[in-house]
Every structure is written in structure tokens, then in C-alpha cells.
Amino acid sequence: MFLTVAGEKKEFQDGINIEKLIELEKVETPEYVTVSLNDDFVDRDEFADTKLKEGDSVEFIYFMGGGAC
What we know:
This protein has 69 residues and is mainly beta.
């Protein structure tokens, strides 16, 4: 099946979940990543249970903190 991952169309095996996708995509610091699936955020507790389907769009998002000096 084809998914759009970080804006790039890629082919993956059917039935893959978000947890496996993070592993396959070698996401840096996966413990800090937030995942958007078709423009909706997915709770970290649901990564293993969320199966992806043909045409889904997935983005990996990192929230950065900062402030003024």
C-alpha cells in the first residue's frame, strides 16, 4: 500500500501500524515524536493499535521549547 510520509509517497506492507512505521522510518528520538494521521493527532498510547490504510498521510512532529533571554 502507499502512504504519504512527511510529504513523500512511499510503499509499505498492508496492515502496518504507527509504531512499526516509526521504526521503519528510523524516526529520531521516537519517545518525543508526535504523530499526525490525516491531519489529526494520534495519542501515543494508540500507536500500536492504529493500523494505517492506503492513501493515509502521516507526519512526524517535534515540539520545540524556547524563550527569550
